[in-house]
Amino acid sequence: MSEASWYVVHTYSGYENKVKANIEKTIENRHLEDQILEVRVPMQDVVEVREDGASRQVQKKMFPGYVLINMVMNDDTWYVVRNTRGVTGFVGPGSKPVPLTEEEMRPLGIKSDSVQIDFAEGDSVVVTGGVWKDTVGIIRAINDNKQSVTINVDLFGRETPVEISFTEIRKM
């Protein structure tokens, strides 16, 4: 299998989040989790000042009309992404998508280096950040491509699988 790279997809303006959701749904339906690894709409925090002088912090899209996708480029993945409603095409000459370089990815906060892990399936871990902070769970699956683990947490008295980033957990 070839290496995954980041590609830029052009969308109708305002459809970025809808395109992201549609692609993620298609990934799930067609079981392409190992080929299309991540879909992102890069956001940035901006301070907005209203007419009455009040300021508030809001998130704005860094690149309106564009979505970033980390994927293994082949005929199937190209077809899935290209034929998603709201997508006008890949960024690149003609119909040939061009992956982003390391230099282009750096300002976006996308790191290509992998995190070394010291845990395995069945280990108990505690979540150190995010909405599940301080939650204890047992690792059920490890996804090296997405740099995440699936743990079972107790939610309303039921075991529920939750996906957590490598950087947000530590071994107990």
Mind explaining what this structure looks like?
This protein is of the alpha+beta class. The chain has 2 domains: 5-108, Alpha-Beta Plaits, CATH 3.30.70; 124-171, SH3 type barrels, CATH 2.30.30. The chain has helices at residues 16-30, 75-82, 102-105; strands at 5-11, 36-40, 43-49, 55-61, 66-71, 87-90, 124-127, 136-143, 148-155, 158-165, 169-171. The strands form 3 sheets. The protein has a 5-stranded antiparallel β-sheet, with no helix packed on it. Strands 2-5-1-6 form a 4-stranded antiparallel β-sheet, covered by helices on one side. Strands 3-4 form a two-stranded antiparallel ribbon. The two termini are 35 Å apart. The model has no long low-confidence stretch (mean pLDDT 84).
In short:
By secondary structure, the protein is α+β, with helices and mostly antiparallel strands. It is 16% helix and 39% strand.
Please render the helix and strand layout as text.
Blueprint (H helix, E strand, L loop, with lengths): L4 E7 L4 H15 L5 E5 L2 E7 L5 E7 L4 E6 L3 H8 L4 E4 L11 H4 L18 E4 L8 E8 L4 E8 L2 E8 L3 E3 L1
Antiparallel strand pairs: 1-5, 1-6, 2-5, 3-4, 7-8, 7-11, 8-9, 9-10
Structural class label: alpha+beta
At CATH level 3, the topology of the largest domain is Alpha-Beta Plaits
* Overall tally of domains: 2
- What's the tally of helices? 3
Q: Helical content, roughly?
A: 10-25%
Q: Could you give the distance between the termini?
A: 35 Å
Q: Name the strands of the widest sheet in spatial order.
A: 10-9-8-7-11
CATH class of the largest domain: Alpha Beta
**Apparent shape:** globular
Number of strands: 11
